[in-house]
């Protein structure tokens, strides 16, 4: 089983890289995580351990990433700038690396007003390009202070970018800034305007961004039009055109229409220049990921994790 | 004298740019738009939450500082325009409330943490 770092440096990739979000976990012990792993892991190269996704508190990114690692799946530990200052962020990265968690995804983070505790303070002591650089320096054996870190953790650093949010033309330049800071892959926010994703990848191609970072557009697996409306109205930076919502809402089988929409998006994304793979966010919590991967003609990445590993 | 400078600076920059006296001014590199008025304090470009109309994720009635900045930077002299894409280091919180004019003259605003500069640079 190749690591993400190995897959992303393959000179001639045999297949797209597939990552997915591990749904947030609250209680239920490691069993809660192993259920998600059992369902998602066969089809992915790595799973994201989110960091208080959508500004809601959950079991921490570090704890979930360590658990995923123990369960035999490579974790991509998301690190957001919203909740912690630079000391805490450095400590989390170094602490997780101590447990073998060395793949990161750095992001600004949704604002606290998007969450269920909007009265909380926002930190944003660093922004995401700064966080990428700070992580890259840790990988080179230095804390921000200059204090040595020996041995340096072998980090693979990724980030996010949103091709669907203004200023559109500038998004690729921001991607280049993140690449220069040390990012090696970009998980792109779900984009319901196909033309914007196309434009982003065209610019990525002409500026060479896709040769510096692996582009992984996100595909959301949702149950129906309600989720699309919710995303459009409530999730920062996501716009779903009315025509797309109507297409799903007016279908005789909404669930199936939502699936077909995701399948079309996935095919379109994979057809674009420089797209190295896909990142899935599964809000259906069923066997859809397996179905879409099969419909895309992609192989199952691994057998279901053995019960030994699960029974931690 | 130093305090006087800070007072004058604030008096000039507050009404025009909403200056919060971070003490490490980057206005010329950011299209003469102050990034510290971004509710997330971002100094390296817009977050992914910018709304369809170009307004801020956090303050729906305010144009995103970075959309404005990027737009304006296109109209700036070339060197400033190019500096828009520079990776700006984390804010030095000790400079809050001090005069960036003084910090510019003394070079204090250029100081970065010892570990910031990459080995390859
Ligand atoms: S939308 Fe613009 S101004 Fe608002 S938080 Fe994001 S970058 Fe800052």
Automatic annotation (TrEMBL), chain A:
Keywords: FAD, Flavoprotein, Oxidoreductase. Transmembrane segments: none annotated. This is Methylenetetrahydrofolate reductase. One of its GO terms (molecular function) is FAD binding. One of its GO terms (biological process) is methionine biosynthetic process. Pathway: One-carbon metabolism; tetrahydrofolate interconversion. InterPro entries: FAD-linked_oxidoreductase-like (IPR029041), Mehydrof_redctse-like (IPR003171). PANTHER family: METHYLENETETRAHYDROFOLATE REDUCTASE, METHYLENETETRAHYDROFOLATE REDUCTASE (NADPH). Belongs to the methylenetetrahydrofolate reductase family. Its cofactor is FAD. Pfam families: MTHFR (PF02219).
Automatic annotation (TrEMBL), chain B:
It comes from the Bacteria. Residues 6-92 form the Methylene-tetrahydrofolate reductase C-terminal-like domain. It holds the Pfam family DUF5981. InterPro entries: DUF5981 (IPR022026). Residues 88-121 are annotated as: Disordered. This is Methylene-tetrahydrofolate reductase C-terminal-like domain-containing protein. It comes from Halostreptopolyspora alba.
